[in-house]
TrEMBL record:
UniProt catalytic activity: UMP + diphosphate = 5-phospho-alpha-D-ribose 1-diphosphate + uracil
Species this protein is from: Candidatus Malacoplasma girerdii
Magnesium recorded as keyword: yes
Cofactor (UniProt): Mg(2+)
Phosphoribosyltransferase domain sequence ranges: 4-206
Annotated binding of 5-phospho-alpha-D-ribose 1-diphosphate, by residue: 76, 101, 128-136, 198
Protein family membership: Belongs to the UPRTase family.
Binding residue positions for uracil: 192, 197-199
Pathway: Pyrimidine metabolism; UMP biosynthesis via salvage pathway; UMP from uracil: step 1/1
EC number(s) stated in the UniProt entry for this protein: 2.4.2.9
NCBIfam families, A to Z: PRK00129.1, upp
Protein name per UniProt: Uracil phosphoribosyltransferase
Regulation of catalytic or functional activity: Allosterically activated by GTP.
Length: 207
């Protein structure tokens, strides 16, 4: 299922990120803040366990998360979302999948994968700002499902193309996708229109 996070404060931040005039520092800052917002809807169904909490005035019913959480940013651009999610989920472990798009075929090529030991007992949140063709996110979820078999997997993207949503939900109908906005289309180079350009380059100032 696809969940679009339609919140005014999220939209304001995304607009700043889209703006061609926004520099790398401001782009990263808005991405971190927007990622914090996205943590709430993306974790809404997490199970909690009750516990007793001693307050200065008595005993309250408190809660802790039942399961571990693993954040899996897709390198490079997914790294820009980690600080926002980690600030809301301080106990989360972090795994990394390195993928780059072949510029001609738009196929996602794996170059790195390192996951935490206890990933099988955790709820995994895959992070990547852009869902364009969805080749990268589909491949990341393929790898996680095949090799690590976690309790659950969900995906958080900032901007998605309709083509990417269609491809991803066909490949992984059981994986929920949380997205800030769905844009118009892909252009002939596989970039999202209007989008925000190349997320990795804007985060890391590489172009
Ligand atoms: C970008 C982006 C996604 C991917 C999306 O990464 O961060 O991972 O493209 O496109 P897709 O849905 O068509 O696969 P890129 O390959 O440019 O690598 P980078 O993050 O290192 O810049
Ligand atoms: N990757 C990006 O960073 N931006 C796009 O628009 C498409 C893929």
């Amino acid at each position: 299922m696809v969940h679009v996070i339609d919140h005014p404060l999220a939209k304001v931040r995304l607009s700043r990120m889209r703006n061609i005039e926004t520099d790398s520092r401001d782009f990263r800052l808005n991405l971190v803040e927007l990622s914090q917002f996205m943590t709430y809807p993306a974790t809404k169904d997490f199970e909690t366990v009750e516990m007793k909490v001693k307050t200065p005035c008595g005993i309250a019913t408190g809660y802790k998360l039942k399961d571990n959480v693993t954040l899996v940013p897709i390198l490079r651009a997914g790294l820009g979302m980690v600080d926002g999610f980690k600030s809301m989920l301080p106990g989360a472990a972090i795994g990394f999948i390195g993928l780059y798009r072949n510029e001609q075929t738009l196929e996602a090529i794996e170059y790195y994968c390192k996951m935490p030991e206890n990933i099988a007992n955790s709820n995994v949140i895959v992070l990547d700002p852009m869902l364009a063709t969805a080749n990268s996110t589909i491949k990341a979820v393929n790898i996680i499902k095949a090799k690590y078999k976690p309790k659950s997997i969900r995906v958080v993207n900032i901007i998605a193309a309709p083509e990417g949503i269609k491809a991803f939900t066909k490949a992984h109908p059981d994986v929920d996708v949380f997205v800030s906005q769905i844009d118009e289309k892909l252009n002939e180079h596989g970039y999202i229109v209007p989008g925000l350009g190349d997320a990795g380059d804007r985060i890391f100032g590489t172009k």
